[in-house]
Amino acid sequence: MTKKIFITRPLPKEVLIAAGLLGEVTVRENTSAMNESEMIDSLVNYDVVLPTLGDIYSEKIFASCNKINAKLLANFGVGFNHIDVKVANEHGVKVSNTPGAVTDATADIAMALMLMCCRRTSEGERIVRANKWEGWHPTQMLGFHISNKRVGIVGMGNIGQAIAKRCHFGFGMQVGYFSRSAKNLSFPVKRYDSLTELASSSDILVVSVPGGSATHHLINKDIFSSMQPHAYFVNIARGDVVNERDLIDALKLNQIAGAGLDVYEHEPKVPEDLIAMENVVLLPHLGTASLEVRTGMGLMAVQNIKSFIEGNEPPNLV
């Protein structure tokens, strides 16, 4: 029997072609997150759903379905904190994700944010575009040199390790990290038992942990108050890992020198306080935004679907 597959956002052409070989595919053309009725409909009327960030399959959504026909949520993305996996499993719905494909691209964005906020590149570009640049001089827009500085990485999974590698080999930085378990890397790193100790010892603090209840507001006023006034904060993880109000307060009080953000606590809403600050770099969740990477993610999700349809366990089951 032909399987009905629902894809919640437009995906690269190569991904849609591959998905089309597996069954009857319906693609939702809207690029925004689904509302509750759309999510309920997807669980009731399709065999497989390929959702992504913002499609919040909560306990409420599952409880609102009279009958759930879907058997797999093949998530597009490595993070799956928008899906209540436990409740999904209780309703006979498996969940998969797309790890690995996102690692290098996300690490690259972390490095971009480090350079952008420390070297004031966004601020400089705004000056040029506004025709306010009056010419070079020796004390113009002096930023923070990142070579040979100390970087603290919160979360040392695949992405954290990729960031550490770039920092060490690319910029000669001293790498410290905070993680649930010790990591055996091929270059020098220092593990900290305390997150506040890591924060106080770092010139740049980068967050690279999964989202979810275990890391909700992991970065808060205690962490920001531990950082040095010259230090910078970078987040490429999930927005709700950071207490955004505490970050704003830390910036206003000059507890930290600046921040580079690719994710936000209430995406796509970005607080006006952050938008108004010249020492904050704001990106629209670009972590995996390259055609090559997004195609790879999509094909990995399709492979999970293919394995499931063939009666096998998806290779990236969570």
Description:
Helices cover 36% and strands 15% of the residues. By secondary structure, it is an alpha/beta fold. The protein has 12 helices and 12 strands. The chain starts with a strand and ends in a 9-residue tail after the last helix. The strands form 2 sheets. It has a 7-stranded parallel sheet with strand order 8-7-6-9-10-11-12, with helices on both faces. It is elongated and about 70 Å long.
Explain the layout of strands and helices.
Blueprint: E1 3-7, H1 13-20, E2 23-27, H2 36-45, E3 48-50, H3 59-63, E4 72-74, H4 85-90, E5 94-96, H5 103-118, H6 121-129, E6 150-154, H7 158-171, E7 174-178, E8 189-191, H8 195-201, E9 204-207, H9 221-226, E10 232-235, H10 244-252, E11 258-261, H11 272-275, E12 280-282, H12 291-309
Parallel strand pairs: 1-2, 1-3, 3-4, 4-5, 6-7, 6-9, 7-8, 9-10, 10-11, 11-12
Helix pairs in contact: 1-12, 5-7
Task: For the record, give the distance between the C-alpha atoms at the N and C termini, rounded to a whole number.
Answer: 26 Å
Widest β-sheet, arrangement of strands: 8-7-6-9-10-11-12
Mean pLDDT over the residues: 97
Question: Overall 3D geometry?
Answer: elongated
Largest sheet descriptor: 7 strands, parallel
Q: Specify the number of helices.
A: 12
Q: How much beta, percentage-wise?
A: 5-15%
Summary tags:
12 helices, alpha/beta, about 15% strand, 7-stranded parallel β-sheet, about 325 residues, 5-stranded parallel β-sheet
